[in-house]
UniProtKB/TrEMBL annotation, chain A:
The gene is pduE. It holds the Pfam family Dehydratase_SU. NCBIfam families: PRK15443.2-2. InterPro entries: Ppandiol/glycerol_DeHydtase_su, Prodiol/glycerol_DeHase__sf_su. Residues 1-21 are annotated as: Disordered. It comes from Mesorhizobium loti R88b. This is Diol dehydratase small subunit.
TrEMBL record, chain B:
This is Propanediol/glycerol family dehydratase large subunit. Residues 7-555 form the Diol/glycerol dehydratase large subunit domain. NCBIfam families: PRK15444.1. One of its GO terms (molecular function) is cobalamin binding. It holds the Pfam family Dehydratase_MU. The gene is pduC. InterPro entries: B12-dep_deHydtase_bsu (IPR010254), Cbl-dep_enz_cat (IPR016176), Dehydtase/Dehydtase_re (IPR003208), Diol/glycerol_deHase_lsu_sf (IPR036999), Diol/glycerol_deHydtase_lsu (IPR003206).
Amino acid sequence: MTHTRADYPLAETQPGAVTGKHGKALPEITLDAVLAGDVTMEDLRITPQALQAQADVARDVGRPTLALNFERGAELVEVPQDFIMQVYELLRPGRAKSKEELLEAAATMRDTYQAERIARFIEEAAETYAARGLFTFRF
Amino acid sequence: MTPKLNRWKRFADWDERPLRLDKFAAEDPANGFSAFSSPADPKPGIGIKGGRVVSLDGVLEHDYDMIDRFIARHHIDPEVAPEAMALDSATVARWLVDMNVPRETLVRLAHGMTPAKLAEVVAQLNALEIAFAYSKMRARKTPGNQAHVTNAKDDPLQLAADAATAVAFGFDEIETTMRVSRNAWSNAVACAVGGAVGRWGTLFQCSSEEAEELRIAMAGFTSYAETVSVYGTEKSFTDGDDTPWSKAFLAAAYASRGVKMRCTSGAGSELLMGFHEAKSLLYLEARCLCLQRGMGVQGTQNGGIDGAPLTATIPGGVRELMAENLIAVWLDLECASGNDARSTESEIRVGAKILPYLIAGSDLICSGMGSILKYDNSFNPSLINGEELEDYLVLQRDFEADGGLTPLPESRAIELRERAVEAIAAVFEELGLSTPTEDMKTSVVYASGSDDTRSLMPRDVSFISEAIKERGITVIDVVKALANRGFREEAENLLNVVKLRLSGDYLQTSAMIRNGRIVSAVNDPNDYLGPGSGYRVSEERRLQLNDIRDVLDQKEVLRSEALHEKDEARHIRYRNLGPAANGSAKDDVVIGISPAFGLKLYRTTAGHRLSEVLGAMLDAIRARGLKARVVRFRHTADTSFLGLSAARLAGSGIGIGIQAKGTAVIHQRDRQPHNNLELFSNAPITRLEHYRALGANAAAYALGEMPEPIVVPQRGEAMGSRYHARVALIYAIETGLIEAGAAPEEVDITLTGAKS
């Protein structure tokens, strides 16, 4: 289902449909539930579905690049924090010593996490870094 | 002999002004010192083949640097570009200030424009036009503001108290950083807790190293990030240890964690880093902004930022800062419009810099106003800090402009600070992190800044911070600790902010939280189309903005006068003897007093008892062997007419007129009104000896002498705005007692000689 600006803000128009990773919806995440130990950090994490809905809204109001970022974000939701930080580090200047290192990261994103857009993004970086001589050694 | 000097002394005076601490740089495009255009700036241009950007601002695809590549692939909309680039820049500039051309038309065109084109268009606008275009083009209708909450000790108690205060002033975002980087976790917890006191919805950031910042966000303590810096040249970008792709990846990572994010860029950074390529500040910044839109971030913090002080040294630099903000909103980005780094020592330049943003509105007018004192601002002093925060509140009131803040009563501030300090202390105790003493807490509640506190020091904080990090404490632990210790409302407030990230609503452009609701460019778009449209201060909001401290009205003036009534009654008695007679004796001098003199008003604006003032004048007249009478006039309260009427009643032809506020005049019977002999108009600085001398001079005139007129030395202070409201209110009390045609009354004065 494609969302439009009429659905925004989702937390106000459809709170029951906004859920965390374990399916707990907004109205269920109460202070009492927290105190009872029924809410974990995982219940407070955004889902790919919510990000896709926000991407739909962004596109509907004429912000296609913002929508694409939300879609890339949606692909990263399930990617572990450590791997995200590892890839970020690799994308910084001079960290990767060759194009292959970045291509390998892209492949992992694609194969392990089905992060197709992210994979292409990293590949584009690899190609640019090669063209601009960014695989140089930094002291 | 007056010696000849080698300079005009005025320059020596000017040397003492704070302005002279500012230094100014010469325009020097070759070395990067040019605001709007440099010979090295490319001419706008684009080549598109098969839906692909094959040349950009004169650079062919195979020569693109990484910034060109990113802009060509991710920013430029190839369908719009041919149309947008073909437009005459002057025409587009006019559209930006034409209220009949809708914002969305211009936003669509911007998506097809290259950096050189965007810069060329906005360079055509003067400062006024830029401010107007900014108000029309900014994305969200309702303006907001952001605060810095830091302190020199990284003291969590003070951070919590100051965060609570900032929230109460109405800041939509608060941002902290630390003096000692390992204290990041403690600062984050302290501000998160303090920010939950009083109301919920203020977004919070802990500015630290990017990976660390993301981890803190993951633990739920923060809700936004703006440390994602981008640069306008390839070399400065790599020198900043990133690339457009690494930053864009980070943008997606923040989105994936439900954390609001904006980029940071601003004029002067490439110049500071030494990689400006001889390009103008505006052109480099236009590149940064195109990059940011291409990366898909919702917004930007720009308008100089760390480079603002440097930019302000360059001719046109301050106008350039406005121009880059305009490009940001024209590209449809949220704009936290700088005004953070203090770019000048001159208070006049500070006021001038903030004004366009205040009246045009901005998503976040300051990307960090120091809600704390200058020395506690760990980002370095902001344009406006805790010291000047009330000046800002008054500016809002003066211009009936919503600068995003609301005056805060002192009693409420104390209440919130106490609550915040208790809350963070409770959390620390509950989690076994620290046990702040009562003395620590009290010293923080009443402290203006960290110099006044006896609280936690950076080393103590490091233990707390590292424990939070190592034990993996999350926002859930903090919410529980608050609730367990009776801070249920704060626990709810904190939980509500974390829940925001589930829907991702606040990831949309220009999102903030007002009264528990998301307000963004999606559901509160700027709809400015001329007078009466766009954001307007509502009557309710106007009353809030007006509610600053120390506001006088007539009731307040009468109340403070009434405090002196009893005291004056001990010193003087006025007895009405009926209609005043025309004096005929040559030694008769008349002092004419005003309608409220001694009846409703008891002190001059300088604070002298009216009994003392009258006594001094009477003594001086009598000392010359003359007789002095006091007559009250009720047909006028005007000093000049009081004096003239008194002179006409006086046998000597000389009269003194005096109002209760202390303004006095010596008049002579045959002179035209206002063409008096001497005037004491500077009541606020007139001292008793001046009134005594006035009496002596009146006597001298009555004796036919020509005395030296009394000069009350003044430097304009009596005309200061500190007196005007009070003077007008007092005068209204006088004129309120006027009766047309009321006859003058002879008044018998008894001075009791009571000791004060």
